[in-house]
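Next comes a single protein record:
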Amino acid sequence: MTDDMPEGVIQTEVKAELFKSMGHPARILILEMLVDGPVAVSHLRDGTGLEASNLSQHLGILRRQRLIVPSRKDGRLFYELSCSDVSGVLSAARGLLGTVLQANGYPRASIIQPSRVPSVVGLAAAGAVSRQSAAL
């Protein structure tokens, strides 16, 4: 079926799956914890506060998307980012969030409580409405 699809559509679907795999706060936290290098699963569990089975599910999703890779050392299981590009995506997301929030009059993202952060989609829509109103 994919043979009939234009290359751009296939890439869009693959990108959507990639972003979907990163689309959970626990998975973002796991990835952020791995930015500085390999981390033992026990430390990931402590750092995220997730139950072992729940952590395992999140790690499985990230592993299937090849965002992380496992390794063993002295009988302990570690995970690390599969490549530096993963760290780059996280950094770009932080930058984008900061830019969008700042452009819409919100304080720096680092001091905002997660429950009070408006969605980027909502901010973009509000910006479009403001621009349309200004044009009238």
The chain is about 60% helix and 10% strand. The beta strands are 39-40, 68-73, 76-81.
